[in-house]
């Protein structure tokens, strides 16, 4: 066998193995989501399994396609350029895909983001200025069909400077602004990124507990039911713990797609 043929066959076998791993990883994570949901002690949000959002950051659209073909529909991205490119590449072969934007959103990139086919939810509204910008541009977007865009308010529950999110003290004001002042947006819940350094042997992640407290305050102030306020918390390293505490939306990337590879930082 020539060296060229050997390398080709090796590459084909490697690709087939990788494809199989993605499907197996997805199945494993779904099983873990279901198992964690069964352990929840909270009486809220138990009618449905938590939503799994597969995060394909830095991974090719072909990987998204494989996971979509295995039955997954909700996908998330952290960078505007990346979600725009993938959503256009996959709009014909993944007609039912639902895209979540889960990264820091700059005002000057809102218009570009809103042009994404099948944009389902922006999870990272963290200021009145950003909410107003999304509200204004959504109604003038070519994707607008008369339906408000689903959004979540991101809360910085750990008070870490490097993380986005409105402070817990101002969270209710931002939720009220979205609900009252932004008629083209639909508030669906609250979102946070938990501290990566928490030692779970010491007890529940306080960032998650804080988000749940924020949810309760939102429900009380605006007379909303538990089903009206989703809770997006939990990623690859802590999604099971988050679900047990009451998360309704988890964002899992590397556990399904493998370690991320950065040729250059996306934007």
Report what the structure shows.
This protein is of the alpha/beta class and 267 residues long. It contains 9 helices and 8 strands. The protein has helices at 3-38, 61-69, 80-89, 110-114, 128-139, 171-181, 206-222, 239-245, 254-257; strands spanning 51-55, 74-77, 98-101, 119-125, 149-154, 185-191, 230-232, 249-252. It has an 8-stranded parallel beta sheet with strand order 7-6-5-4-3-2-1-8. Helix 1 runs parallel beside helix 8 and helix 6 packs across helix 7. The chain is globular, with a radius of gyration of 19 Å. The model is unreliable at 5-17 (pLDDT under 50).
Helices and strands in order:
Elements lengths: L2 H36 L12 E5 L5 H9 L4 E4 L2 H10 L8 E4 L8 H5 L4 E7 L2 H12 L9 E6 L16 H11 L3 E7 L14 H17 L7 E3 L6 H7 L3 E4 L1 H4 L10
Parallel strand pairs: 1-2, 1-8, 2-3, 3-4, 4-5, 5-6, 6-7
């Amino acid at each position: 066998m020539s060296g060229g043929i050997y390398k080709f066959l090796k590459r084909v076998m490697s690709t087939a193995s990788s494809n199989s791993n993605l499907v197996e990883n997805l199945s494993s994570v779904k099983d873990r989501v279901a198992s964690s949901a069964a352990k929840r002690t909270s009486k809220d949000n138990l009618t449905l399994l938590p939503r799994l959002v597969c995060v394909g950051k830095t991974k090719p659209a072909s990987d998204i396609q494989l996971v979509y073909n295995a039955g997954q529909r909700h996908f998330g991205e952290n960078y505007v350029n990346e979600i725009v490119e993938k959503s256009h590449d996959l709009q014909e072969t993944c007609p039912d895909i639902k895209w979540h934007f889960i990264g820091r959103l700059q005002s000057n990139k809102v218009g570009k983001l809103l042009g994404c086919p099948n944009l389902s939810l922006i999870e990272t509204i963290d200021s009145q200025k950003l909410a107003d910008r999304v509200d204004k541009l959504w109604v003038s977007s070519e994707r607008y069909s008369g339906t408000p865009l689903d959004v979540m308010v991101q809360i910085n529950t750990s008070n870490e400077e490097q993380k986005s999110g409105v402070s817990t003290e101002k969270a209710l004001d931002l939720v009220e602004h979205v609900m009252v002042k932004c008629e083209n947006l639909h508030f669906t819940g609250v979102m946070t990124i938990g501290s990566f350094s928490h030692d779970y042997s010491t007890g529940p992640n306080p960032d998650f507990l804080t988000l749940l407290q924020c949810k309760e305050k939102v429900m009380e102030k605006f007379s909303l039911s538990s089903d009206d306020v989703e809770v997006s918390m939990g990623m690859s390293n802590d999604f099971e713990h988050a679900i047990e505490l009451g998360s309704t939306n988890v964002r899992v990337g590397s556990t399904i797609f493998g370690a991320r590879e950065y040729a250059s930082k996306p934007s």
